[in-house]
Amino acid sequence: MQRVCFLLKVRADRLDEYRARHAVVWPEMLDALTAAGWHNYSLFLREDGLLVGYLETEDFAAAQARMAATDVNARWQKEMAPFFESLEGARPDEAMRPLTEVFHLA
């Protein structure tokens, strides 16, 4: 199982709305993530907007590709894009760059 951690930056003026949206993630989005192989997926948000994502999957590139092929993901990413800083024209899911794991306590 591959462990993946990534960082994004949520706009300071959108933090409350970002939290509210994630309190009621669309059921079809949750189903798509599970079907695409995203497991143990968590998002952590710091007060300055730093967003830390963590998930486990067999193959991150394949899991991303499966999500990219779904209509629900396209709709979700379009709605979420305005919440983020520095996407440089990419969708939020395309801007996720995994961090290099340097330690893991098994």
TrEMBL record:
Signal peptide (residue range): none
Sections of the chain in a coiled coil: none
InterPro entries attached to this UniProt entry: Dimeric_a/b-barrel (IPR011008), Rham/fucose_mutarotase (IPR008000)
Name the UniProt record assigns to this protein: L-rhamnose mutarotase
